[in-house]
Amino acid sequence: MTRKLTQRGRDRRLQILREAARLFSERGYHPTSVADIVASLKVGKGVFYWYFPSKEELFVELLRGAHQDLRRRQQAAIGDEPDPVRRIELGIRASMAWFHEHRSSFNLVQFAATEERFAPVVRHNREVAIADAVRHIKDGIVEGRIADQDPGVLAEAVVGVTERLAQAYLLERDEPVDQVADAAVAFCLRGLMG
Amino acid sequence: MTRKLTQRGRDRRLQILREAARLFSERGYHPTSVADIVASLKVGKGVFYWYFPSKEELFVELLRGAHQDLRRRQQAAIGDEPDPVRRIELGIRASMAWFHEHRSSFNLVQFAATEERFAPVVRHNREVAIADAVRHIKDGIVEGRIADQDPGVLAEAVVGVTERLAQAYLLERDEPVDQVADAAVAFCLRGLMG
Amino acid sequence: MTRKLTQRGRDRRLQILREAARLFSERGYHPTSVADIVASLKVGKGVFYWYFPSKEELFVELLRGAHQDLRRRQQAAIGDEPDPVRRIELGIRASMAWFHEHRSSFNLVQFAATEERFAPVVRHNREVAIADAVRHIKDGIVEGRIADQDPGVLAEAVVGVTERLAQAYLLERDEPVDQVADAAVAFCLRGLMG
Amino acid sequence: MTRKLTQRGRDRRLQILREAARLFSERGYHPTSVADIVASLKVGKGVFYWYFPSKEELFVELLRGAHQDLRRRQQAAIGDEPDPVRRIELGIRASMAWFHEHRSSFNLVQFAATEERFAPVVRHNREVAIADAVRHIKDGIVEGRIADQDPGVLAEAVVGVTERLAQAYLLERDEPVDQVADAAVAFCLRGLMG
DNA sequence: TATGAATGAGTTTTCATTCAT
DNA sequence: GATGAATGAAAACTCATTCAT
User: Do D28 and C116 touch (CB under 8 A)?
Assistant: First the structure.
């Protein structure tokens, strides 16, 4: 049912996605009505439903898009780096940079996790992210560079540190990305070491 | 303007708080209507508004109550332990135990952070929690037991690890509290070490 | 179904009537809830329903009571004054004094006139009041002291002036009763003269 | 924030205003629910809130609209008549005609005066109306055609007579406008004469 | 494609009244 | 007589979605 869109149509679609993300992130998903979104773009309500079947589907698209985009960013950063510990570091730094540029996505995921209908999507995305990290961690353990503990636990811990510092220092306090990334990397690498 | 309540009244109030927390946590705040809450308790709609001025205020009370309760639990666990690193460990373990017993509170805070009107409460609660941890971390730094880095950052990292592992292993996978706590403590203490 | 009341009971009843009249008049009938009334008296809700079958009936009682009381006051003032014009003057002055002392009743009647279920009571009360005035006016016409016009119209006009000046100067501007009464009498007597 | 409306929209809006006025006036403001209004127009509930932010605001608009409309009617009737007494007469007659054509507005104002939140609007409207009348009365006093008394009091008296006779004879008894106007003019002019 | 208009189920909240103690 | 608790119908209002133009 994906509509064939002209260039102009694709632009419109993207514009709506971005504005929705911004408003959802600022005020919350429920407090942002479809009317708010279209009003903020100064278009009629029909426009929204021309490009999206429902508010809910748009939100899920945002969710999936954010996950894919972040993941691509991590993979691009890691490239074919052979050192697993260095790969983890690059992953943390890439994530931090991405969070910095896509501040609005942060809240969306946070929110989605708390609502029954969106939770499965979030859960799936998280599993993928953890599986990615677990691979590097396992390699590190094999090389004796990382403590021989449950790699899943270590991966969750790394993600926990990264997201928390992003939230507290990037989003709330607007500190320079590099410094925050440095701090996250330092803590995580120590935490991982055997 | 707090109502004078009999014992029965206090029980009812508590019952509503608990049921609301359960439903909010299971389905989400917005998808849970006041009608759902009272129906689930098999009482009339008026009962809710006899005890709470609004759904919103009940939610805030839940938020503040959770924060206070967790904090008390941490303080009780720490007692007058002189070793700052040990204090941090005790704090992590107490938090983990509390999360285990109050699984519903977890989602609530998560959600609240994403909605404009509740965010300030969450922010305040977090600041208090971080300030608590910072005190122990500073002591640890003075004693040379903890890396001489921004104590706020370290505190956020510890909280990030603890909450993430609680979420992933206690709530989603129902693993034994002690094991999850051990893992969190291990990671954090390594992460903190100088 | 009138309850047998002890002295204390009669006091309570009166107290409720007065408080209700005050609140109805200050805020309006609908915006004043039974809960407001009993809260303002610091008693339980049961008290209200012990003395009155419903909010509506209490209101009607206030309405009827006000009418009767005002009428008695007028009759007492007029006594057996033989001069019809003088009787009208005394009636106006008595009304003005009564309005001054029962400011709250004013709004009640005003409101009651606008609501379907109370309008008949108001209409009836007004007819009685007009009929009273008409008697004096007819006498005045017979004596040639008052213009020979429809006495009903003249009566309404007199009432209109009296109430309007009471409202504007007694209630809203708190001017001395006598002065307001003088003004009303002056205007009305000129208006009536042949 | 006023919505851009098409012709159809403006018609709808007006239709709602009129229907609301009719129902408020017949049954009272509170006994008339928004549901009643839209049901009576056979449209959905959302229509009401598409055109008006709240029942309360619609009511205030009705109030202000009535005031302005009556005032315009008076001014049009008075034109540039040089004789102040004649101006007053024309004002009374114009008001009477307007009351006759807008019977529903009458009750609304009456009601509004009794409720805290609407009273200020009524008070303001009345002040304007009185100020209008006062101007003519002052002129009349200067010319020695009107009793040298507080013009505000005289204005209130005139308004009191006019409204009362309109209420009693136009609305309740459906008498011919001209006759009622004649009676009001007669009484008022006598009442004003020096 | 796009707009303003319309729908109506669903939400929060109020409140007169009744009940149990 | 009196209280706090409970009821539940009904109110105002919201908003995702659809429709007519």
Answer: yes
In chain A, CATH 1.10.10.60 sits at 1-53
The answer to whether the CB of C190 falls within 8 A of the CB of D191 is yes
- The fourth-level CATH superfamily of domain C1-53 is Homeodomain-like (1.10.10.60)
Fill in the DSSP letter of residue A2.
P
Residue A22 pLDDT > 60, yes or no? yes
Query: What mean pLDDT comes out for the span C31-40?
Result: 95
Residue C7 confidence class, pLDDT cut points 50, 70, 90: confident
Q: Does domain D54-192 have CATH number 2.60.40.10?
A: no
From-to residues of CATH 1.10.357.10 in chain A: 59-192
Q: Which residue has the tokens 């490239």?
A: A79
In this complex, the residue of D115, D152, D187 whose CB is nearest that of residue C154 is D187
CA triple A90-A96-A99, angle to 5 deg: 140
E9 nearest neighbour residue (CA to C1'): D45
The pTM assigned to this predicted structure is 0.92
Q: What is the number of other CB atoms lying within 10 angstroms of the CB of residue B131?
A: 12
Q: Tokens 């991590």 belong to which residue?
A: A74
Q: Domain A59-192, what fold?
A: Tetracycline Repressor; domain 2 (1.10.357)
Residue burial C102-122, b: 16+ Cβ < 10 Å; e: rest: bbbbbbbbbbbbbbeebbebb
Q: How many CB atoms lie within 10 A of CB A17?
A: 18
Q: How confident is the model at residue C1 (pLDDT cuts 50, 70, 90)?
A: very low
Q: B163 Cβ partners below 8 Å, 6+ apart?
A: A160, A164, B99, B106
pLDDT confidence band for A1 (50 / 70 / 90): very low
- Cα A193 vs. chain centroid, distance in angstroms? 26
In whole angstroms, give the CA distance from residue A21 to residue C121: 60
Task: Choose the mutation target among B23, B24, B156 for the interface with A, i.e. most A CBs under 10 Å.
Answer: B156
